[in-house]
Design goal:
It is built from ten helices and ten strands. Helix content is about 35%, strand content about 25%. The chain has a single domain (about 5-270), classed as Rossmann fold (3-Layer(aba) Sandwich), CATH 3.40.50. Strand 1 and strand 2 form a beta hairpin.
């Protein structure tokens, strides 16, 4: 199944309004009888200036999709573009430069350098590239994320939520075309997780960024504009303007009502009665 945007743009080279796209994206691991097809001829478009969540049970291919779209993993077949640039034919050095200059990353582990303070961690990718940050933009990012009074603190002096905000600022600092977030709230308690999701939402709404987030959490997906559902390496559905309850119900349908399917146990108790997740003290 393709997303509607992919269907409409299938034969068009223009990437106007599209931050990233894939056509016939296939990723296989192994060979012969041991081959595992992680992605199976996926067509997808990621719209600019929107927050897209990618969901699916464990093993559905959601992280593989993100890694291939971001140029972090090679593809077995198909094509991937960032804007108008096809990345599937780029050499390693060109891919490294593209990721550094045009993509921001957030991961479940914060990946902060413990010997650097927050300000230094935020500008580290640009420092490595020998580029000076746009100070006006950087100030806007820092203030949007509420980090002004934490810039001199090292990671060990910050809470988990504050560390993830620093990671978010680092992803935003170079004003990338696209931000990929892989389970960015996975190591946070519910309150800190909600803060980070709110900041990602703010990055889209106030800063004009484009965010793609891989998550297993319906509550996290509810912060997005669009949820793309994967199953067995294929896009099986999508949902505009999602709510946590609607996302969980859709996921249950894909699993044939089996709430023991991997990926559901984390959120089952929170949403069984349609309740929002409880905040931790």
């Amino acid at each position: 199944m393709s997303t509607p945007a992919a269907e409409h743009a299938r034969d068009h080279a223009s990437a106007d309004g599209i931050a990233a796209r894939a056509r016939g994206l296939t990723k296989a691991y192994g060979s012969g009888e041991t081959t595992v097809l992680a992605l199976d001829s996926v067509d997808v478009d990621i719209a600019r200036g929107r927050f897209t969540a990618v969901m699916g049970p464990s093993g559905s291919g959601k992280s593989t999709l993100m890694h291939c779209l971001a140029g972090l993993d090679s593809v077995s077949a198909g094509q991937v573009w960032l804007g108008d640039t096809e990345i599937t034919g780029l050499k390693d050095r060109e891919l490294t430069r593209l990721r550094r200059d045009r993509i921001g990353f957030m991961f479940q582990s914060f990946n902060l350098i413990p010997t650097l303070n927050a300000a230094e961690n935020i500008t580290l990718p640009m420092d490595i590239a020998g580029k000076k940050p746009d100070e006006k933009w950087l100030d806007q990012v820092i203030d949007t994320l509420g980090l002004r009074d934490r810039l001199k603190h090292r990671p060990s002096q910050l809470s988990g939520g504050q560390q993830q905000r620093v990671a978010c600022a680092r992803a935003l600092a170079s004003r990338p075309e696209l931000i990929f977030a892989d389970e960015p709230t996975g190591n946070l308690d519910s309150r800190a997780g909600l803060e980070v999701l709110a900041f990602l939402r703010e990055a889209v709404d106030s800063l004009g960024q484009t965010v793609v987030m891989v998550t297993h959490d319906p509550g996290a997906a509810a912060h997005s504009d669009l949820v793309v559902f994967l199953g067995d390496g294929k896009i099986v559905d999508e949902m505009e303007h999602p709510t946590a309850e609607a996302v969980l119900e859709r996921m249950r349908l894909f699993a044939g009502g089996n709430t023991q399917t991997p990926g559901f146990d984390v959120v089952r108790d929170q949403f069984d009665e349609g309740a929002a997740p409880a905040e931790e003290d």
